[in-house]
């Protein structure tokens, strides 16, 4: 805040701070307060709202614990989101390392443009592209049939399709933080470790990853939270056996007409996701301030 006032002066800095606070209050705080309010109140007809039955309780939240199917989908969404974050990290880390330490400026620009251009279009359209790729008569099955890997078309929709779609959808949220962290690592440190006889895997484990842990944690946090809150990808690429918890929330709001139960489910998802993120950051010994950078 002091830096803001130093750079722009008192008047302009105050305007900037007020706009940020207004945005946080209107777009972050107010919706979440309303969600909590809905979650703690019963679903009543309009005539009974504000009456003696309209009291705060934990009934909507407790209902999730009592519903075996919804509870299983909820827990599956959490661990599956963690799996999405892990797979995205495995995919992005080698590329980020190569871009930061070995790629020439022209190679860097070409790869970044190739990765960024598809994200100029809407997430729904990108997911529909995966829907076409994974279709029974899609390019993937056609390729695998032509080279003899499979004997008949495979239905890729379901857990595999959701995983592939989410890794692709959120790859940049993992790649850029890791790339930015590794880019600041001096190549001399890697060369020194190699000269001392360290194996490649040990150089990454003891030198590169500790240096880039803030970027890795940032990428994992972003990817996990986006995956846990995703609706489009599981709705288009999923199957009845691979339902996401966000689909249950959507059904409560728009099909079941019970906004209170939907808000309660959304609140539980938000709280548990925040808890998982904070625990992961604590285990990785990374502060929220490092993630915010």
Automatic annotation (TrEMBL):
Residues 74-280 form the ABC transmembrane type-1 domain. The chain crosses the membrane at residues 12-34, 78-99, 105-121, 128-150, 156-179, 214-237, 262-284. It is found in: Cell membrane. It holds the Pfam family BPD_transp_1. It is a multi-pass membrane protein. Keywords: Cell membrane, Membrane, Transmembrane, Transmembrane helix, Transport. PROSITE patterns: ABC_TM1. Its main location: membrane. The keyword Phosphoprotein does not apply. InterPro entries: MetI-like (IPR000515), MetI-like_sf (IPR035906). Belongs to the binding-protein-dependent transport system permease family. CysTW subfamily. This is Spermidine/putrescine transport system permease protein. It comes from Labrys wisconsinensis.
């Amino acid at each position: 805040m002091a830096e803001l006032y130093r750079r722009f002066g008192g008047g302009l800095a105050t305007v900037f701070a007020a706009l940020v606070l207004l945005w946080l209050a209107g777009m972050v705080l107010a919706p979440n307060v309303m969600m909590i309010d809905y979650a703690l109140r019963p679903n009543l007809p309009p005539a009974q709202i504000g009456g003696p039955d309209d009291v705060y309780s934990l009934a909507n939240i407790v209902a999730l614990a009592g519903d075996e199917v919804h509870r299983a989908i909820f827990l599956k969404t959490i661990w599956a989101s963690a799996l999405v974050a892990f797979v995205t990290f495995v995919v992005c880390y080698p590329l980020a390392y190569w871009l930061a330490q070995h790629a020439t400026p022209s190679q860097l620009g070409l790869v970044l443009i190739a990765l960024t251009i598809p994200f100029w279009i809407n997430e729904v359209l990108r997911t529909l592209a995966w829907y076409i790729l994974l279709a029974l008569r899609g390019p993937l099955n056609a390729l695998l049939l032509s080279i003899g890997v499979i004997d008949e078309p495979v239905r890729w929709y379901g857990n595999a399709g959701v995983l592939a779609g989410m890794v692709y959808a959120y790859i940049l949220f993992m790649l850029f933080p890791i790339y930015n962290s590794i880019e600041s690592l001096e190549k001399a440190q890697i060369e020194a470790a190699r000269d001392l006889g360290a194996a490649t895997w040990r150089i990454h484990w003891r030198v590169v990853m500790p240096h880039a842990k803030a970027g890795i944690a940032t990428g994992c946090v972003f990817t996990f939270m986006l995956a846990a809150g995703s609706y489009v990808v599981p709705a288009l690429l999923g199957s009845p056996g691979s339902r996401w918890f966000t689909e249950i929330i959507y059904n409560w709001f728009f099909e079941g007409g019970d906004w209170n139960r939907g808000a309660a489910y959304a609140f539980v998802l938000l709280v548990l996701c925040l808890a998982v993120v904070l625990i992961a950051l604590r285990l990785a010994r990374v502060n929220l301030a490092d993630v915010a950078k």
